[in-house]
Each structure stands twice: as C-alpha cells, then as structure tokens.
Amino acid sequence: MTPILSLSAADLEKWLEDHDAPAYRRRQVWSWLARGATSFDAMRDLPKALRTALAAAFDVSSLRPIATSAADRGLTTKTLFELEGGHSVEAVVMRYADRSTLCISSQAGCPIGCPFCATGKFPFGRNLKSHEIVEQAVDAQRVLASEGRRLSHVVFMGMGEPMANYSAVIESVRRLADPELLGISPRRIVVSTSGLIPRIAELAEEKVPVTLAISLHAARDELRDVLVPINRKYPVRELVDAAQAYGARTGRRVSYEWVMLAGVNDTERDARELGVLLKGRNAHVNLIPFNPVEDTPFHAPQRSSIRTFKEQVQAQGLNVTVRDTRGREADAACGQLHERVMRGKVAVS
Ligand code: SF4
C-alpha cells in the first residue's frame, strides 16, 4: 500500500476531496502522525468512515523495524528498519537533559566508501525516498512521545552521503521543518557531507538554513584522498572554501567533523595542518573518538592523545569540542548495527 507520507500536502488534500472530506483533515492526519499515531484508527477526531478509507488506501509508515539495540542506560537507542524492496537503514535516538536528537540515514549503504566506516564496507543499496527519511523521524517522535519527550534535533549523519541523494534530503528537511508536521527548526537540523562541492553551493540557495557539517578527517589531500575518497574529485581546500561560502550566505557557522584515528590523523602535524586550513574562518571543529569497526585497520586514540590534539588545535585559535562517545554498546557508529545483523550477531525480530 501507499505510505501516507509519500503524498504531498496537495496530493493528500486532493485524495480527501475525492473522498468527500474537507482539506483541513490533512492537517489533522499529519498532526496525529507527528504525535506518534501508529494507525489511522487511533486518529480519534476523524470520522470513522474516513479512518476506514484511509486505512484501506495507505500505510502509516513504509518502514519495518527489524532490530534494536540500546546503550548508555537506555539514553541511546538504535533501530534497524527494513525498507520496501529489502534494504535496511539505521536510525539512532540520543536523549540529553535539554534535547533529543535523531541521527538519520539518507541512503541504504553509501557510495563514498570511507575505509574506517562500517556503512562504507557494504555494497551501495539505494537512495532513500523523502518519505522514508521523514518516517525515521516520525518513528523517533513516537518513541520519544511515549517517554514524555519531544524530538528536537535531527542530524543527517547516519548511513549514506546526504548530498548524493540531494532532492530527497531537501524535501525531507522541508517536511521535518514544516510546523504542520514535525516543526523542527532548520537551525536544529545538521546536514553532513563528505564534500560534494556543487551540492553545497546549491544548498546555500534553498532558503532552509540548516547547519552544514563537513566530514573532514584530514587537512591534507594526500591523507584525505585515502580516508574520504571523494577528496580525489573535490580537494580539501576547495571544499573548505565552498563550506565557508555556505556559512557566509546562511549566517550559520560550519562544523568540521574529525573522526580520530590513532596514528593516522591525530599527530601534531595533523593538528598544525588543521589549524592552517581553518585559521580565521568562522568554524567549529568536532573531534569524534573512533568507534571501532571490525575488519578495519583503525583504532581509537588514547584519551590523552585526544586531549593533546584538542589543545594543539585550540592553541591555533580554533573552536574545538570532543563529541561524547554516545552509544558505543549500541553499535552507534553509522552502519554498525546493520553490519552485526548482516553477520548474524544480532537477532532479527
Ligand atoms: S563515513 Fe559517511 S560518507 Fe563515508 S562511507 Fe560512511 S556513511 Fe559514507
């Protein structure tokens, strides 16, 4: 059946009109979905006949949860969803004192192939449709609502390269931000990219001022060519120029992500090169301790090395934080639950 969120507002209103229902019923349906309704029958302020007609025509969601894991005493939960056609993607909910953040997937697999990433090790599946991206957020909101929480932030840092699925990602961002659906401010939505420069320029013109995060990981082309292979096409200096142009156009400070790999990109030389690359730019550097991935040659640095690296970067005038290691037990690095399910180490429900 057709997933209800695959219809635009206009298409759903047309369907309602064809079924002798007023257009405002569309807002009621969306409001129920945003509050976590799992069936049309639960939408109590709709007439019974309309609920029956909706249930006969549509699915509330196209996603099927097939595995879950939890960590941090339940503050981090991860769900593996099966998509129509059989591919699967992960979504991670992280609960904090002042916010609830969803890490969302935009592709099943990823064509970029970063060698330290669990997702990049599997063959690329397919792009997600915009409704499949939004449905991950609706599911997270359902879970959070049952805990008296509300989804407040979304980061496109799950499986896939968001800019390689550009139109669906932009459409989903508009839906996430729509006050009639989830109403998440674009400022609380982070879109990350490994560096598809033409798409960054396009994003700046969309009038959805999301925060841009660049998966940097290395400041010299020679190393970044290996860690983030798209760098061979879009070199690092040009990438940073494009990202900063985005920041200037939108007024949003750009975030640079740096997964810390022991002995690979955590040396004094790397810190110095990072400082030179971003010096004088309105930028924030986020250091991410590596979450070990099986069958890769990479390791997480010692805490002391991370601290030293941070101080070396800070000493060059950059703004730096170390991201907490939420969800290590939850296989929370992108692609890890998927990988464990594929290897048969996690039971599939
Ligand atoms: S790190 Fe991101 S861009 Fe690289 S392979 Fe993994 S999902 Fe793709």
Structural write-up:
With about 350 residues, the chain is an alpha/beta fold. The chain folds into two domains: about 1-60, DNA polymerase, domain 1; about 65-340, Aldolase class I (TIM Barrel, Alpha-Beta Barrel). Helices cover about 35% and strands about 20% of the residues. It contains eleven helices and 14 strands. The strands form three sheets. It has a ten-stranded mixed sheet, sandwiched between helices. It has a two-stranded parallel sheet with strand order 1-2. Strands 7-8 form a two-stranded antiparallel sheet. The structure holds iron/sulfur cluster (SF4).
* Percent range for β-strand residues: 15-25%
Which cofactors or ions or other ligands sit in this model? iron/sulfur cluster
Mean pLDDT: 92
User: What name does CATH use for the topology of the largest domain?
Assistant: TIM Barrel
CATH class of the largest domain: Alpha Beta
What is the CATH homologous superfamily assignment of the largest domain? Aldolase class I
Task: Please name the CATH architecture of the largest domain.
Answer: Alpha-Beta Barrel
Distance between the termini: 22 Å
Rg value: 21 Å
List the secondary-structure elements in sequence, H or E. EHHHEEEEEEEHEHEHEHHEHEHEH
Main sheet overview: 10 strands, mixed
Class by alpha and beta content: alpha/beta
User: Rough shape?
Assistant: elongated
Number of strands: 14
User: Helical amount among residues, as a percent range?
Assistant: 25-40%
Strand line-up of the largest beta sheet: 3-4-5-6-9-10-11-12-13-14
List the domain count as a whole number.
Answer: 2
pLDDT under 50 segments (min length 5)?
Answer: 345-349
Number of helices: 11
